[in-house]
From TrEMBL:
It comes from Cephalotus follicularis. It comes from the Eukaryota. The keyword Transmembrane applies. This is DUF538 domain-containing protein. Keywords: Membrane, Transmembrane, Transmembrane helix.
């Protein structure tokens, strides 16, 4: 009689488990309809790192490698001007976007590629942009909401993200490159 009671109890527990747990989707697996902003949030990053309205993107959940395709390059204003190219790519990990391309930041009158973005300690309220030579520090609250992005005119004074950062000696060379006025070289 003890064996029958054990089988019935085990069957009962298994049935309860299957009825309660299986109908609910796991939050661990991103759905195909997830936005790039929800992926940023899952990685502890603010959604305001990218402009509003991104719908064309791909993300490899294993490697974190992502690709974003904008309909046009655009600029957003924070404490400084940020330029987003047609294509933005990088590697998304917790608290960090590494190997970033397609994003540049204006400092005074020069444009520098943003190579990485990181939040070391979320409670610090700080976010860091790696522009090659230094890490630029911003208030994390600046990036709470995705910014409106103004279409970037093709302007000979604006340098796209294909510019290179300062070289190892820290010098910046003035070069004419396809009509651009200044170019940071490495």
């Amino acid at each position: 009689m003890g064996g029958l009671l054990t089988i019935t109890t085990t069957t009962w527990i298994t049935t309860i488990f299957l009825v309660i747990v299986l109908p609910f989707p796991s939050n661990q697996t991103p759905s195909s309809s997830s936005s790039i902003y929800s992926h940023l949030a899952r990685q502890g990053l603010p959604m305001g790192l990218l402009p509003k309205g991104i719908t064309d993107f791909s993300l490899d959940p294993t490697s974190g490698l992502f690709q974003i395709n904008l309909t046009q390059p655009c600029n957003a204003e924070f404490e400084t001007q940020i330029h987003y190219d047609f294509n933005i790519s990088g590697v998304l990990t917790y608290g960090r976007i590494g190997e970033l391309s397609g994003v540049t930041q204006q400092e005074l009158f020069l444009w520098f590629p943003v190579k990485a973005i990181r939040v070391d300690v979320p409670s610090s309220g700080l976010i860091y942009f790696d522009v090659g030579v230094v890490d630029k520090q911003f208030s994390l609250s600046l990036f709470d909401n995705a910014p409106d992005c103004t279409a970037a005119a093709l302007d000979p004074h604006h340098l796209p993200s294909s510019i290179e950062s300062q070289n190892q000696s820290g010098t910046i060379a003035n070069e004419a490159d396809e009509g651009y006025i200044l170019r940071a070289v490495s």
